[in-house]
Structures are given as structure tokens and as C-alpha cells.
Design brief:
Blueprint lengths: L9 H7 L7 H12 L1 H11 L8 H18 L6 E3 L6 H9 L3 E3 L3 H9 L7
Parallel strand pairs: 1-2
Length: 122
């Protein structure tokens, strides 16, 4: 089977969904973080550092944007989250709920993927 050249490169397709502006997107994100600085400081005092802070809204936005961008140009594509990048069960289960499958790199990750109910695992 011969692959046909896509009308757009992946880079062009990805950039199509990214607004080019004066950085206001990042300013807004940073302002949201700064608005919660007292909460972060209290958490650091209670639990120590470093910590991972998960913004579920941003996770969902980025995960769905990634999928939608690729599916626009590669219909039927499937997505696998590499659990070795972060195997926090709550985060992994959130990505599963957004339609991601599991990419495991060891027995622990495989057991976790199965426990979380993944059916497609590589």
C-alpha cells in the first residue's frame, strides 16, 4: 500500500489550531496560577516539595486538542498515553476517560492499566 502525501504537514496542521497572539494565553494561565499562590504555599508547607499540581481543565483541553487535531487529518487514529511519563492513577484514569489507551513499559504499568480497565494496551 502506498502512502499518499498529506496535503498539510503535521506541523501545519498542529499550528492551525494555535492562535498566534501577544502571549495573552500564557499570561492568563500564569495569572490563574498566581491567583492560587496561597494554596500552593500552604500545600508546600504541609506536604513539602516538589509537588505535582494537576489542573484538570488544562489536562482535558490539551488532551482533546491533541486528539482532535490529529483526527482531523488522520481519521480513525488511536491515541496511547505513555504511562512511563507519569503513572499517577488519577491522571491516567482521566486520560482514559478522554479516550486514550495505555502504553506500558513494565509489569507495574501493565497491572495498573488492567486495574484501571484499559482494553487497548501496547
Amino acid at each position: 500500500m502506498k502512502w499518499q502525501k498529506a496535503s498539510k504537514s503535521i506541523k501545519e496542521a498542529w499550528e492551525e489550531g494555535i492562535e498566534k497572539d501577544d502571549g495573552s494565553y500564557y499570561k492568563t494561565h500564569i495569572e490563574k496560577v498566581l491567583d492560587k499562590k496561597e494554596l500552593f504555599l500552604k500545600s508546600a508547607l504541609k506536604f513539602g516539595t516538589p509537588q505535582y499540581i494537576l489542573d484538570e481543565d488544562v489536562l482535558k483541553e490539551k488532551a482533546l486538542f491533541f486528539k482532535e487535531t490529529f483526527r482531523k487529518y488522520i481519521p480513525g487514529s488511536e491515541f496511547f498515553y505513555a504511562m512511563k511519563s507519569n503513572d499517577l492513577p488519577y491522571l491516567v484514569s482521566k486520560l482514559k476517560s478522554y479516550g486514550y489507551n495505555a502504553d506500558v513499559a513494565g509489569l507495574f504499568e501493565l497491572q495498573l492499566a488492567l486495574k484501571l480497565g484499559f482494553t487497548k494496551i501496547i
